């Protein structure tokens, strides 16, 4: 094929290959040489392209014809004229005509494949057609890649011809695929300004074409376009995009009475995503979609098809990502759509809604909002019969439910209290297993309100608000105490005791302490629970500044007795040195003898563990760690000014702790103990050697 060697021009070669004997090889040769001829500019591009697209009609076998025309499109794609002005090689309009003509012929061949007689029957034809569909679709991709194609040219010369061919082919597979291709390959801006033509074409498609996929694809593309271009709102409003799409969805539902529920709901899902993306600040558009969906499906009873149920859940949850749940739940259509779902689906929607509210910290400002939200969350608050209430998922779920009360934020304290009372009424409907997990949050919400009233200077003797509030707290905390065997009740009672102490109500505070101690004795059966609870009791009682001394001493004595009741010596040790903090609060309570008494008990407990280890020749407990902890406690009280904790005592404990740490076998835990010991010893830097009992000085240092 070398024209120089054979003295043939490219034009002559082009004419020569047209004389090849077999039609299919001839067409491939003609396409190849014709494209080379275009590249050499020996002939005009327009004339060669016209000839090529006409000559390929010689192959009418559907499959062979598709591949020949696909080869032509592939070879010519970089040789098409791509400029507006008409030149020797034509213009972009000539390129458009060539591609559309080739596309039209390929589509006809593709549709004809459906009617061929094949061994597998019609089903086999459909499979082969779907395998070859990309050959046809590449023509649309080629059109979208022409850089000179602008919106007016697209609307005038491309879209009308494509839609005409798609509609007239009257083939389900072709219409479905090609409409999707049009939506996917051309720019979103083109679709936005050509909505009328597209939506009109959708209405003319075959009744068996799945419009859900096509419409959803278009709306999803436009929604993404809106989310990426925040300045494009005016553009969407100028073409009235939402109303056009909404009307089109309504027309589809009314014209196709047998449309599956899945398809119809999916259309509304795509439409609400479009509304949320285009109008993120205006909930009215999302409301319009929900209203339309409720009108279409709200009165049909419960939806049972799994995929359709999933789409309804998506329809309800999508607006929550952008708008406040309290606002959405005020729409009657939201409740109607929720009524279409069976309990498991309503339960799932309630959880997703609650998580969104907590994530966004959506506030409820009045009792109407609270009632509305809690009614919506009823599947979580009340549940259903024979449900499992002892697993971890249930506990996590009820933890989320309990957080609802903390979303209440009313400007008026009376309204705030009424809202909390409404929440309590709803929580009481959930039964014992739920109440023991949700009621503690009511107590702490009430305590927060106590702080608000205190900040306004109100006391129990000055108004009814605090009296009513503390009565509510007492009743609710008692309920928690009766239902729960965890430390939740202890936390509630102690929080109330601290709040009452802050209001200078000593008798009320003492009553709450009494309830906490009774719960400690009667319900906390494990050492771990008791140890954790005792630590909280000690911290709360230490900060109680307004109890009469006799009452405070009685409570403190009780706490010390609890420390002696632990079975394990190591628990006794830790409880005793923690109790020492009760008796030392600078400026309020400085009982150095009591502090020393608690520390001595802690030291005796660790010494007893050491003695038992020596007798049994086994490690009975974490002796080295306990010595360091006791040393740390002594140093703290010495530095706090407690003269009873002398330097001689600290030196003795330091020597014992050093000996134990040195004997500790090397392990991960021993490394932590050594690091803790070194940090503790650093507190001794600058403290005098134990020569006198006159407290810390700046001269000398400890030896270890």
Can you describe what's shown?
With 704 residues, this protein is mostly helical. Helices cover 70% and strands 1% of the residues. The protein has helices at 3-6, 10-17, 23-40, 45-55, 62-76, 92-112, 121-144, 151-169, 172-185, 188-192, 195-203, 211-228, 233-238, 241-255, 261-278, 283-297, 306-317, 325-328, 332-338, 343-360, 367-376, 378-381, 392-402, 413-427, 432-455, 464-483, 488-502, 506-523, 527-542, 549-564, 569-579, 592-616, 623-639, 647-663, 668-682; strands at residues 584-585, 589-590. Strands 1-2 form a two-stranded antiparallel sheet. The model is unreliable at 690-701 (pLDDT under 50).
What is shown here, in short?
The chain is mostly helical.
Rg computed from alpha carbons, rounded to a whole number of angstroms: 41 Å
Question: How helix-rich are the residues, as a percent range?
Answer: over 70%
> Per DSSP, what share of the residues sits in E-state strands of 2 or more residues?
under 5%
The biggest beta sheet is recorded as: 2 strands, antiparallel
Uncertain parts: 690-701
Q: Could you say which overall geometry the principal axes of the C-alpha atoms support?
A: elongated
- Please give the number of β-strands: 2
Neighbour order of strands in the largest sheet: 1-2
Distance between the termini: 99 Å
What structural category characterises the helix and strand content?
mainly alpha
User: What oligomerization state is this entry in?
Assistant: single chain
| Count of DSSP-assigned helices | 35
Mean pLDDT: 88
